[in-house]
Design a protein that fits this description.
3 helices, Expansin_CBD_sf, single chain, cell wall biogenesis/degradation, 6-stranded mixed beta barrel, Immunoglobulin-like, Barwin-like endoglucanases, mainly beta, 35% strand
Length: 259
């Protein structure tokens, strides 16, 4: 009998240990150690793209992201799954060009494509396996002198702090519905989305690209609810965030993750 109790104690201890490890893993995406990378900048009001950047956010100023944004090389971008994540960046290893004691916080909003016409260590800044971030010049100047151009930096994932709730921008045609999910606090990046009309159950949405999600269903003339799950396995539900008379092109504000 004593052996049975001891064996049961060991099993319970292992389960608690595994649960603690799992929690540690699930939160590691929103608070990570400093890692080495390089950073450059662009000087235009918006990064060069034709459809709102590789994350689909569109006008970054109107979307609330401002100039505190970054385009990421493929090594960091993870095929768009990291869109919306927040990074703290600091300049290192250069007394002449670094702004000492300063860091900048940016949101991942775009992709920096590789240039295979140049070597990774000779102008192909965003070529694999480089970890590279392209910042707006105003964000870059918070950590380095702009004349430095390409600078060694350190970065780490941090929790996102956003004003207001999660934004749902509904677009599409007919039964095809696409929803841009933006202004996400906490982990920032979304891994699963469900949508529900008043005449449907919960429908799993698929990732179209970046943070644009889609479904094919008859959802017109119904209030819409959304269930959003972030990369740290937290879920927030916004009930009837869009009224029954919603239209394509409208944006609605729902609940928010704690940051």
């Amino acid at each position: 009998m004593r052996y049975c109790y001891f064996h049961l104690f060991l099993i319970l201890f292992q389960l608690l240990l595994y649960a603690r490890i799992a929690r540690s893993i699930s939160t590691s995406s929103t608070l990570s150690e400093w890692r080495s990378a390089w950073a450059t900048y662009y000087a235009t009001d918006n990064p060069p793209d034709s459809v709102g950047g590789a994350c689909g956010y569109g006008d970054l100023e109107r979307g609330g992201y401002g100039k505190a944004t970054a385009g990421l090389s493929s090594e960091l971008f993870d095929r768009g799954r990291v869109c919306g994540a927040c990074f703290e960046i600091r300049c290192v290893d250069d007394v002449k060009w670094c702004v000492r004691g300063r860091s900048v916080i940016v949101t991942a909003t775009n992709f920096c494509p590789p240039n295979y016409g140049l070597p990774a260590d000779g102008g192909g800044h965003c070529n694999p396996p480089n970890r590279h971030l392209v910042l707006h010049v105003e964000a870059f100047q918070k950590i380095a002198i702009w004349k430095a151009s390409n600078m060694p930096v350190q970065y780490r994932r941090i929790k996102c702090i956003k004003d207001g709730g999660i934004r749902f921008t509904i677009d599409g045609v007919g039964y095809f519905h696409s929803v841009l999910i933006s202004n996400v606090a906490g982990a920032g990046d979304i891994v699963a989305v469900k949508i529900k009309g008043s005449r449907t159950g919960w429908l799993q949405m698929g990732r179209n690209w970046g943070q644009i999600w889609h479904t094919n269903a008859d959802l017109k003339n119904q209030p819409l609810s959304f269930e959003v799950t972030s990369s740290d396995d937290k879920t927030v539900t916004s009930y009837s965030v869009a009224p029954k008379d919603w239209n394509f092109g409208q944006t609605f504000v729902g609940q928010q993750f704690q940051s």
